[in-house]
Write a structure and sequence with these properties.
By secondary structure, the chain is α+β, with helices and mostly antiparallel strands. It contains 4 helices and 3 strands, in the order βααββαα. It folds into 2 domains: 41 residues, YefM-like fold (3-Layer(aba) Sandwich); 30 residues. The chain is 53% helix and 15% strand.
């Protein structure tokens, strides 16, 4: 869920907003009088996850492999294997 907050309110309660972004996995739209200056704030873990998702989508071979695997699972085309012992 994205919440909006004015820049001045964000600045005055920075720690609270940062905690909310991290603990609630919320994105926060920080607005300014000039919409071109608006920014989005999100937790670092959520940002890394988003970037990894983009890397997967940009790598067509990896993306296709994931889709094939998802189709196999949906079609019950998977097998259970025992883990190898070290």
């Amino acid at each position: 869920m994205t919440q909006s907050v004015a820049y001045s309110a964000f600045r005055n309660n920075l720690k609270t907003w940062m905690r909310k972004a991290n603990e609630d996995a919320d994105t926060i739209l920080v607005t300014n009088s000039d919409p071109a200056d608006n920014v989005v704030v999100m937790g670092a873990a959520d940002y890394e996850s988003l970037m990894e998702t983009l890397r997967i989508y940009e790598n067509q071979q990896l993306h296709d492999k994931i889709l094939r695997g998802m189709r196999q699972v949906a079609e019950d085309g998977t097998q259970v294997h025992q883990l190898a012992e070290e």
